[in-house]
Amino acid sequence: MRETRSTFEFNEPIERLWSAITVYEVLTHWLADEVRGRPKEGGEFSWTWKLGLEGDFTTKGIYKKIVSGKELVMEWKDHPAGDIFLQLLFESVSDNKSKLTIVNGGYPSSDAFNIWLDGAKEGWDGQVEKLVTFLAEKPDFTKFIKKT
């Protein structure tokens, strides 16, 4: 099995980075057009992108592991390449600096899946750019969070 791995530095405290990635109301501002499912081990999630003339694209999965402020692991239930996982590793570097390592793996060794592996790397790198922009433009994104 193969994986892609990228590490990014943020000028953000770890708590803010964790919230931007795990609070589903916030994810709709930088990740997907529609997000369902709050992070809970064993809980399901879905992400939907509105692609205009191409229609909507929705992907679904399960939260496999959650260690607050440290690690988030999700597994897709509907990926064409099979049992693909996304592992997000969070590291606090200082009070206002943190690192995020994105591991997207489980891709079969066959060259037939290279397009999926390459697309995953490109896609997550692009999403991180959107996240960086969102965090810079929204110093207080708590207004997006619904009170439960």
Automatic annotation (TrEMBL):
Pfam families: AHSA1 (PF08327). Residues 13-135 form the Activator of Hsp90 ATPase homologue 1/2-like C-terminal domain. It comes from the Bacteria. InterPro entries: ASHA1/2-like_C, START-like_dom_sf. Transmembrane segments: none annotated. CDD domains: SRPBCC_CalC_Aha1-like. SUPFAM superfamilies: Bet v1-like. Belongs to the AHA1 family. This is SRPBCC domain-containing protein.
